[in-house]
């Protein structure tokens, strides 16, 4: 899908055109365009191609030695010239994804009020209850297909960052476009500002959100209900992606709306999808079947239970009884193994509670349960200790070690630790990026179990088909499709996810598979084409400058 300038009537000219990020080409305006749009004298005389502009940005960013500065340079570019911004990102996604999203976005959110330059997206404060549709109507685009929304309470592994959480929806939606070609004009980042319980932020004179403690209970629920209703009224084809809500809100919000509107929670379902994709690929290395696996989770929140449930559903698709499949997944949190006798369990944890005596240490839980894989979603660093990894390696020829917490500072272990403590036998993937590791003369390339392989592709499938719902099965299909893109060459160096340099091709493959499932299930609002892959490709945004209107 190429950019197109609007008809000449009402088209901005001159200085206004240079400050419209959707239409600005900067030095790529031709001499004829400069004359016609009254740009002469407002630009240096040289005319540059977009490739030269991209090269200039590459050089500028490469000379910076601080990732947050790189993030800010890219954010400023997005505010000035959206086409060039996406051309830069899509020219080298493996380099730029860690800058525009994890891990750098975590620091950006922590310092949001101190680095704020220009607003992007919509801020809906709870003080505007009763007027949310009015506030949403201030957004200039009318055909919004994707909203990524957060209330800022559980940003990555960093906790309550209040309105500073806006960096997450902005970053996620940038990846919708850069990684799967979803046109950016259809995307809207939103923060639901219900206050913050972070006293450091409340005391910070530069904090940009409401200066009050968080609203809870019925008032919070009514606020979210009003938001969803406003979205449905204004954007009836929109899919809402919930992002970085606390567990006690994330789970009930998803349960409340998943059968009513097109929606999903990336922390629960996207994380589950990418974990399952890693498991599918890992089984090609271990030579085992999914039904033979047992997983122990470090962390028992919505991410852990979401992964455990999707694994269980995938096992059930292969003929395992669902209850038996759930019993293959165990949870461990700050209070020990999740067992049925505990009085502190939430409803979403109970399907995975073990009917056995309590176990107080993670290593002991490994010895008792003998898992084939451990998955870290605790957001607490260094909990996969030498003892943990060595115990896993004692009971498994190829132990599956997935420290998925991010950013990097929160990872349960590093790639080097997992490989060295297992004598190079671990099948490893992490939530944050780690460099290649050499163990006894063998080179390992750690895979990053990043949701970026799932949610942008899911978005493109929903966009192309105008799907009415997002179902659990769609995430299993997406996981299978991601694993299909892992080559034997990747596996030979321990890489169980496709290289991020191939993210667009991988995403379009995943989107085609998911779109096919959407059509098969009767969930599409458009007619099924003969060539579903062709439909997907026809909707892809390309960062190419629009031609001037005749």
What is the fold's blueprint, element by element?
Layout: H1 14-18, H2 31-36, H3 50-62, H4 67-80, H5 82-91, H6 93-100, H7 104-110, H8 112-115, E1 122-125, H9 132-136, E2 146-150, H10 167-180, E3 187-193, H11 199-202, H12 217-234, E4 239-242, H13 247-257, E5 263-265, H14 266-286, E6 295-298, H15 302-317, H16 322-327, E7 329-333, E8 336-337, H17 362-369, E9 373-376, H18 386-395, E10 400-403, H19 415-421, E11 427-430, E12 437-439, E13 442-444, E14 447-448, H20 455-465, H21 472-484, H22 488-492, H23 503-520, H24 532-538
Parallel strand pairs: 1-3, 2-3, 2-4, 4-5, 6-7, 6-9, 9-10, 10-11, 11-14
Antiparallel strand pairs: 7-8, 12-13
Family: Belongs to the malic enzymes family.
Domain Malic enzyme N-terminal: 78-258
InterPro entries: Aminoacid_DH-like_N_sf, Malic_enzyme_CS, Malic_N_dom, Malic_N_dom_sf, Malic_NAD-bd, Malic_OxRdtase, NAD(P)-bd_dom_sf
Description of the structure:
α3 (50-62) packs across α5, α4 crosses α5 (82-91) and α10 packs across α20 (455-465). The chain is globular and about 75 Å long. The chain has 3 domains: 14-93, Hemocyanin, N-terminal domain, CATH 1.20.1370.30; 99-261, Rossmann fold, CATH 3.40.50; 269-452, Rossmann fold (3-Layer(aba) Sandwich), CATH 3.40.50. It contains 24 helices and 14 strands. Helix content is 44%, strand content 10%. It has helices at residues 14-18, 31-36, 50-62, 67-80, 82-91, 93-100, 104-110, 112-115, 132-136, 167-180, 199-202, 217-234, 247-257, 266-286, 302-317, 322-327, 362-369, 386-395, 415-421, 455-465, 472-484, 488-492, 503-520, 532-538, and strands spanning 122-125, 146-150, 187-193, 239-242, 263-265, 295-298, 329-333, 336-337, 373-376, 400-403, 427-430, 437-439, 442-444, 447-448. A 7-stranded mixed beta sheet has the order 8-7-6-9-10-11-14, sandwiched between helices. It is an alpha/beta fold. Residues 4-9 have low confidence and may be disordered. The longest helix has 21 residues, at 266-286.
